[in-house]
Amino acid sequence: MRPRALAAVFALTLATTLPAGAADTLRDLARKADLHFGTAVDVEALDSDPAYARLLAREFNLVTPENALKFSVVQPERGRFDFTRADALVAFAEAHAMRVNGHVLVWDQQLPDWLTQGHFSPDELRAILHEHIRTLVTRYRGRVASWDVAAEAVGEDGKPRDTFWSRGIGPDYLALAFRWAHEADPQARLRYNDYGGEGAGAKSDGIYTLVADLRTRRVPIDAVGLQMHVSLSDAPRAGDVRINMKRLAALGLQTDITEMDVMLPLPASRAALRKQAVLYGGMLQACLAVPQCRSVSTWGASDRHSWIPAFFPGQGAALLFDADGRAKPAYFGVRRILRSAKAGKH
Ligand code: G3I
Questions:
Q1: How far is the centre of ligand 1, averaged over its atoms, from the C-alpha of 42 (Å)?
Q2: Which of 12, 197, 214, 275 is the most buried (most CB within 10 A)?
Q3: Contacts of 109 (CB under 8 A, 6+ apart)
Q4: Active site residue 44
Q5: Where are the domains of the chain?
Q6: Among the residues of 60-139, which ranges form H helices?
Q7: Could you tell me the distance, in angstroms and rounded to a whole number, from the CA of residue 194 to the centre of ligand 1?
């Protein structure tokens, strides 16, 4: 991001500050239910789309950079770190009293070529990953409240996935990553984050086994993120999600719904939008029923800035606000449930 663009983000930051006492937004109702309500943020759009920035500030009290802290963005060349976008988001969040979730330290996508094609030895890779984690987590110590330390390390069959990191460092890479993150910021809440294991099944069991093993070995992990990228036909049952959250809680782990979206065939019919609202509401209720579930985040705020249409042609309309920032039935459903949530349920 250019300096002038950055200055514009900061100016906008001031211009979009909520009036004191603004009520009945998701963030306000979530706070009363002792929950955080969040979204992934496209930091480029913060600069180019003022209405988007206003929407974020009004409705959400937790933000996750959608791409700004990924390896290829933040360390495009070995040892050269670029925090321009991440800094802009953290400043925006602080100006609006939002919590920040750092995303993501160990993942096998969005890795730079210098890393994947570098033919590094296991010792070199360990040193590179340690330095990467230390640099990011130290920079935002006390400002980024939680980190997705690792993501998507379990396969559909429930077994550990063969990834760039597992091949390069060996199976202990996950434990090392959590320990290094904890060393860099002992107060940060450290999370494992995955998709497709939210309810019942082999993957959910595999994630449970993985994090149970980390807990047994006293690896500093605090929470499990259930991503919840779903469609109307492949969503888990909310009851199974609640049961899964409870068994994770029994291990001493908090949970979050971290990346929820519900993709619909385009153009979205009114019936599909209603079913989408029911699905969002069901997952929120599952979270509200488990004291250790601390937040619900959607993977984007409005359908204008959503990854779905680019990755699933013909699908979209997956979020709570339409492309013009208008609230959809899912928004009103979520708001109704938050409004009736018992205060201080956690
Ligand atoms: O920024 C470049 C731009 O310079 C270039 O011209 C353009 C050409 O393709 O690409 C742009 O980068 C894209 C980036 O999004 C920013 O828009 C990447 O190609 C694209 O792959 C990347 O997609 C992201 C995806 O992760 C990567 O796998 C999505 O935005 C992001 O929503 C998605 O998020 C993931 C979570 O991190 C982990 N869980 C699953 C979730 C959905 O896949």
A1: 10
A2: 197
A3: 70, 152
A4: no
A5: 3-340
A6: 71-74, 84-95, 113-116, 122-139
A7: 17
Taking only the tens place, the pLDDT of each residue in 204-213 is 999 999 999 9
Rg (CA), the chain: 19
Each residue's pLDDT tens digit, 60-73: 999 999 999 999 99
**What does the alpha-carbon distance between residue 327 and residue 333 come to, in Å, rounded to a whole number?**
10
Which atom of ligand 1 lies nearest, measured to the CA of 40? 32
- Gap between the Cα atoms of 208 and 214, Å rounded: 10
pLDDT tens sequence across 124-172: 999 999 999 999 999 999 999 999 999 999 999 999 999 999 999 999 9
Write out residues with Cβ below 6 Å of ligand 1. 66-67, 109-110, 151, 195, 227, 259, 307
pLDDT of residue 187: 98
Q: Which two tokens stand for residue 287?
A: 């979270």
3-state secondary structure 148-191: EEEECCECCCCCECCCHHHHHHCCCHHHHHHHHHHHHCCCCEEE
Nearest CA to ligand 1 atom 37: 66
CATH hierarchy code of domain 3-340: 3.20.20.80
Q: Whose CA is nearest to atom 16 of ligand 1?
A: 67
Length of the chain counted residue by residue:
346
What is the Å distance from ligand 1's center to 255 Cα? Answer: 25
Residue 259 among the catalytic residues: yes
With b for 16 or more beta-carbon neighbours within 10 A and e for fewer, the 182-203 pattern comes to: bebbeebbbbbbbbbbbbeeeb
Structural tokens at position 187 = 């107060």
